[in-house]
Structure formats: structure tokens, C-alpha cells
Fold Solute carrier family 39 member 2.
Amino acid sequence: MEPLLGVKIGCLFALLVLTLVCGLIPICFKWFQIDAATGRHRRVLSLLGCASAGVFLGAGLMHMTAEALEGIDSEIQKFKMQNRTEKEGNASDDAGSAQMEYPYGELIISLGFFFVFFLESLALQCCPGAAGETPVQEEWSGTHVLELHSHGSPPLPSKRPLRALVLLLSLSFHSVFEGLAVGLQPTVATAVQLCLAVLAHKGLVVFGVGLRLVQIGTGSRWATLSILSLALMSPMGLVLGLAVTRGDSKGGQGLAQAVLEGVAAGTFLYVTFLEILPRELAGPEAPLAKWGCVATGFAFMAFIALWA
């Protein structure tokens, strides 16, 4: 067996095992179930949820969005280079260059955001209540806020199966592309370096996914199946990378991959900003501590982005 192939197979198993372990920890231990927690236990889980929200925020902005923008920009530059020989010296070249300055990457990410927004609005229009209740509605209005602040418990997690599904799908797309990148590395050193960078942030993100599934009341069987399917995505991408030739991609294959990454980033940002962060920050207790936990999770992901 070639050393490079052996290293990539080792990376495959490392990605699979780490994802399974980190994702199943919140599901297998009842300590992470916030519904049954009281007092200090509930506060610790709340702060842990805020830290995971910061991790999601950092993953969305510093990893998924950044990689999507870089990929789309790279494919557009390739397109410009292919057409430059025909247009060089013509007056239309300046106009074409000006048109290429349009922020296509940001547009594609926004389309992913609005696509999920449309799906959720359509679900609410056709089946009122299908998407569940938002975490910051009637529970925090009027005198009910005072009752909860003095005697009651924080609001229950938002029951939005559509958003949970979108979160899993967007992360699955991203995981496939991460594994594909590892599988396409030409040397042992670059494959190991990239794999370590992926492992460093993937463990935290998948732990946050498992915690999120527990907090929204997902059954243990479905939560386990969700983590298992998510764990298989990176190895699947790595296998695809091993199967793909190391030459230039055919036709629009590279552009299609970049566009899919952009859409996945937009859907991930939608869930992060409209579901995870509002839910974790809804309670009035310890706002500075919550801010610190969110900032800590984000800072860790930003630090990892130096190598990822």
C-alpha cells in the first residue's frame, strides 16, 4: 500500500470516529438534557449552549462562508483567464472586467439564505404550526416575563424540525467537500495537515449538533441516526477524492462544487442567526456570561481558521 493512500485511509477512520464520538456524547448522557435540569445544572447547560452557538457562528462565518467565497472567486478567475485571450485588446474587455467585479459569491450565499427562508414560510403558510413555535414569543411578553424571572423556568427549546433538518443538510454538504479536499491532497504532509485542521473544528461543531438535537427534544433513535449520517459525509467525500483524478476538473465541476458550498453556507447562516442564537440568548439571566461564551466559541473557530 502506498504511504499516501494509507494516510488517507487513516484520515477517513479518524473523521468517522471523532464525529461519532463527539456527536453521541450529548445524546447518550442524560446530563445534557436541559428539560430535566434545575438550578446550577441548567445554568451550566445554558452557557454550554451559548458556547456551541459561538462555535456555529464561527463555523458559518470563518469556515463555510470564507471557503465558499474563495471557491467561487477562484472559479470566476478561471473563467476570466479562459476568455481573456479572445477579448484582450478589445474595448469590450473593460466592460467584461467590470461585470466580473459583481459579488457573485455573496449573491449565492444570500440565495441559500432566502431559499430556506422561503421553504419555512411556505411550510407555515400551508401547514400553520408545522414549523413549531419560536423561542422568543409570548413567553417573554408582559407580566409573564416577570413570572418566569422570579419563579418559572426559561422557555423550552424551539421545536422546529425543518430548521434542524436544514442544519444537518448544510453541514452534510460541507462535510462532503471537506472530505473531498482531504482526498485530493497530493502529499502525505498536506493530507495530514488538512485532516488535523478539519478534525479540530469538526469535533466541536458535531458536539454542538448533538447538543442541539437533544435540546429540541429529538428522540434518541432519530438523533443517533442523524449523527451517524452526518459522520459518514466526510469519509464519503474522502473516498470521492480518492476516486477523482488529480487533473483539472471537467467542465463546470469546480464551479458546481463552489456554488453548492455557497448555498450550504447560506442555509447554515440562516439557522445560526434565526434559530440557534435567538434561542440561546432569549433568557434574561447572565447576559454578560452568555456573551462571553458565544465570543469564546467564535474565537476558537477563528483561531482554527489560521490552519483550516
Remarks:
- DSSP finds eleven helices and no strands in the chain.
- The chain has one domain: 3-29+40-82+101-241+252-304.
- The chain has a mean pLDDT of 75.
